[in-house]
Amino acid sequence: MNIPAELKYTKDHEWVKIDGDIATVGITEFAQSELGDIVYVEIETVGETVDQEEVFGSVEAVKTVSDLFMPISGEILEFNENLESNPELVNSDPYGEGWMIKVKITDASQIDSLLDAAAYEGIIH
């Protein structure tokens, strides 16, 4: 199971890449493998400020729909539009081309509440 050390994680299986005051968010390899083949990613919160742990969208797989939870409070700046026509990128490249949103962080202190790779690995094993 791939759990990149440079990323932060949530107990809800989102990953976060921090770059200054911008966070890129997606779901982990573990999450996409549990969901199965992803057929649709719905994000209707672009331009909105969403609080930590609030729902920012959903992922639809063949057998289930799963909510996506904000790992960190902020304004959703961008949705990965490649996912509209290629939602399977979340399966094939969850930490790269399968990213979901970019967020302008409004409370940097929340970064400390995110899990590191070792702590996240402890949750899924």
Written description of the protein model:
The chain is α+β, with helices and mostly antiparallel strands and 125 residues long. It has a single domain (8-107), classed as OB fold (Dihydrolipoamide Acetyltransferase, E2P). The chain is built from four helices and nine strands, in the order βββαβββββααβα. The chain has helices spanning 29-35, 82-85, 89-92, 117-124; strands at residues 8-9, 14-19, 22-27, 38-42, 49-50, 55-61, 65-69, 74-79, 101-105. The strands form two sheets. The chain has a six-stranded antiparallel β-sheet with strand order 1-2-3-9-8-5. It has a three-stranded antiparallel β-sheet with strand order 4-6-7. Strand 1 and strand 2 form a beta hairpin. The longest helix has 8 residues, at 117-124. The N and C termini lie close together (10 Å). The mean pLDDT is 97.
What features would you highlight for this structure?
single chain, 125 residues, alpha+beta, OB fold (Dihydrolipoamide Acetyltransferase, E2P), 6-stranded antiparallel beta sheet, 3-stranded antiparallel beta sheet, 9 strands, globular
Write the layout of secondary structure elements.
Elements (H helix, E strand, L loop, with lengths): L7 E2 L4 E6 L2 E6 L1 H7 L2 E5 L6 E2 L4 E7 L3 E5 L4 E6 L2 H4 L3 H4 L8 E5 L11 H8 L1
Antiparallel strand pairs: 1-2, 2-3, 3-9, 4-6, 5-8, 6-7, 8-9
Q: How many separate domains make up the residues?
A: 1
Query: Given the C-alpha coordinates, what overall shape results?
Result: globular
Q: List low-confidence stretches.
A: none
CATH topology: OB fold (Dihydrolipoamide Acetyltransferase, E2P)
Please count the helical segments: 4
Along the chain, the helix and strand elements come as EEEHEEEEEHHEH
Specify the helix fraction band: 10-25%
Question: What is the first-to-last residue Cα distance?
Answer: 10 Å
- The level-1 CATH class: Mainly Beta
pLDDT average, as an integer?
A: 97
**How are the strands of the largest sheet arranged?**
1-2-3-9-8-5
Structural class: alpha+beta
Under the CATH scheme, the architecture is: Beta Barrel
